[in-house]
Amino acid sequence: MRGIRCHAVLLAASCAAAAAETRLPIRAYTIADQLASDSVYSVLADSRGFLWFGTDEGLSRFDGYRFVNYGLPQGLPHRFIEGIIETHAGDLWIATPRGLSRVTAGGGSARFVNYSLEQVGRAISPGAVIEMRSGRILAATSQGLFESSTDASESIHFRESTLRRLDGLNITDLVEDSGGGLWVATTTGVFVFGASGAGAAPQKLGVQDGLPGYWAQVLFADSRGGVWVGVRGGVAHLRCGDQGKWSADQVWPSE
Questions:
Q1: pLDDT at position 160, please?
Q2: What is the dihedral of CA 206, 207, 211, 213, to 10 degrees?
Q3: What mean pLDDT value characterizes the chain?
Q4: N or C: which end of the chain has fewer CB within 10 A?
Q5: Quick check: 150 pLDDT over 60?
Q6: Vertex 115: Cα angle to 168 and 219 (nearest 5)
Q7: Model pTM score
Q8: Are residues 136 and 120 in contact, defined by beta-carbon separation less than 8 angstroms?
Q9: How many structural domains does the chain have?
Q10: Domain extent at residue 242
Q11: Can you say whether the dihedral through the CA atoms of 33, 34, 35, 36 is positive or negative?
């Protein structure tokens, strides 16, 4: 979950077990193994077989044997890595307090290409970031959502999204469901924007809809049309009803 400090990274280092009851060996990797920091805020397994770890001291790439670390000297705009995604094209987008950084699948002269989210002359800090079905990158900030666009020269810019109802909210995660709806997790509940976009008001989900709490921290859209929500209070699985409204059909409260 984003924002939760992990004091060690646990990696399974075994092939599939021959029997279901076989115990898999677990190894803990820490700064003693050259991980950038023991405080890990995001993890990504990319399409090339690498594991990427976003920490408060930089970005770590793991190939199964060793870590390679990246920070300010390598071109990142900030050492605190809040989120990492891989696009369908194979690019990596990295969220930091000083903007987004991109690693292109095709390589190039610069390992990291940095982008700021500007508004009223001051930089906006992104947290959660996703790639939409349209191919655009959507970044969440304390000032709302910012969406990528490309100008005539093919340069990428980030402008304020038309979804303007989230200003001032602490956004913790984003996901797009199988129907094209956008889910936004916040510390005061979950907002669901329909596939139609900004025209319709979002549905706000909370304990009245079956969530075991309001402070949502992580979202996951499954292949069966449902959405999983992890909150401070447990985990809930949600489905869309006949009236187009979402509610929890299964809940697992925390002990």
A1: 82
A2: 90
A3: 84
A4: C
A5: yes
A6: 50
A7: 0.80
A8: no
A9: 1
A10: 168-255
A11: positive
